[in-house]
Amino acid sequence: MHRILAAIVALFALATPAGAQGSATPDLSGFWINQYTPDLSTVLGKQPPFTEFGAELWRTVDTAKDPTAICLPVGPSRGFTAPFPFILVQGDKAISIMFEYQAIWRAIYLDGRAHPDDLADYPYFMGHSLGRWEGDTLVVDTQGIDERSWLDTAGHEHSARLRLTERFKKTGPDTIQWTVTYDDPIYFTRPWSIERTFTRGKPGDRVLPYTCNENNKDVEHLRPNQPNLQYQHVPEKKPGG
Amino acid sequence: MKRGLAALLTAIALLASGISIAAHHSFAAQYDITKPITLKGAVTRLEWANPHVYFYMDVTDAAGKPANWAVEGMAPNVLYRAGWRKDSVKVADLVTVNGYLARDGSKLVNLQSALLADGRNLFVGQQPAPKGR
User: Fold this and answer.
1) Which residues pair with B101 in a beta bridge?
2) Is residue A58 part of a domain?
3) CB contact, 8 Å: A229 with chain B?
4) How many CB contacts within 8 angstroms connect chain A with chain B?
5) B24, A227: Cβ pair inside 8 Å?
6) A206 interface with B at CB cutoff 8 Å
7) Per the domain annotation, does A40 fall within a domain?
8) More confident: A17 or B126
9) From the candidates A62, A63, A223, A229, which should be mutated to test the interface with B, based on the most B CB atoms within 10 A?
10) What are the Cα distances from residue A79, in Å, to A48, A97, A141, A188, B127?
């Protein structure tokens, strides 16, 4: 816990207040409420464009093996789709996101650095994130995401080659449109995207405690569960084909 | 107002989703949707803790044999935001629970409704405001 705090404090030290920026960059700071999305395919309206490999993994996924059931970190996708809020603190060199779910954080570096050369050898459960502003939109490139995390509760998985591109755009004083693109050539034949909306909390809202292994009695009761065994993969038709 | 509404809708969607037990893991890996059960008895203990609230109750079966059952509810943070508190239920409160049995055969159910003697549906929906407020 102290390490997490130290990391957050260090990140704040890197950052300067967003108001000091001078440009018209919007301030995304605040307490935000997710749209709970346990199954990304419900937003997509269909299953994502699986490769043969990805389809077979989806068909045979065992939801008893959900990494969060044993309190492994949720990963960057589920952090923004869980039924728990987050606090975003924006600076001009970095943005920190503190998720209530699992009391975990993401750091988004805005200082022009590159991803580390050894990222594949030392992945993060929440990924390594680089951000840049495209006009009024924050664009975040996340790589080095530990392949043990899942994309959602339903059991959509990913490989170590997953690359997330997230676009954060304020659509009003109290709403952020979050567009996330999942690019993983091992699991998907092409990148695919969904949109969700973050809604600002009320003044005085606070994050509440979440210590996953405080009382995680569920794990001993989990039994194998493969809900998709009837799934039949139909590859997408190629354009013009 | 819009913000409050969004939070409320989220809470309602979560609490009304029935077989959802929040984001922690899938329902069907732990509980059997084909095995609903009703339990009546007195609360013996509450665990207001992450990742899910548990309470325990003494239940006497049709043959007169007593047993202590565990009832798993939602995440405490979701319940807190819906107005529920640690003292929303007390030891010895009588409660009628409808839920689904754990697949492993243990004396554990997933809470769908839990009616207290005063009419409140414990840890389901929005906590009714106390009288006189």
Assistant:
1) B109
2) yes
3) no
4) 121
5) no
6) no
7) yes
8) B126
9) A223
10) 19, 10, 16, 21, 27
> Closest Cα of chain B to A127: distance in Å?
20
Per-residue pLDDT tens digits for A205-226: 999 999 999 999 988 999 999 9
Residue at B132: amino acid letter: G
Strands B66-72 and B108-116: parallel
CA distance A23 to A9: 25
- Tell me the pLDDT tens digit for each residue of A89-122: 999 999 999 999 999 999 999 999 999 999 999 9
From CA B115, how far away is CA A151, in angstroms rounded?
A: 36
Tokens encoding A99: 């998720």
Antiparallel, parallel or unpaired: β A104-109 and A94-99: antiparallel
Domains, chain B, in order of start with CATH, read 2-20+31-116 (2.40.50.140)
Tokens of A79: 């952090």
Query: In sequence order, which ranges of chain B are alpha helices (DSSP H)?
Result: 2-16, 76-81
The ipTM assigned to this model is 0.81
Beta pairing partners, A137: A134, A169
Domain of A36, in residue numbers: 2-19+31-221
pTM of the predicted protein model: 0.85
Here the CATH number for the domain that contains residue A110 is 2.40.128.20
Interchain pair A208, B76: CB under 8 A:
yes
Domain count, chain A: 1
Alpha-carbon distances of B16 from A14, A241, B55, B78, B124, rounded to whole Å: 43, 44, 20, 12, 8
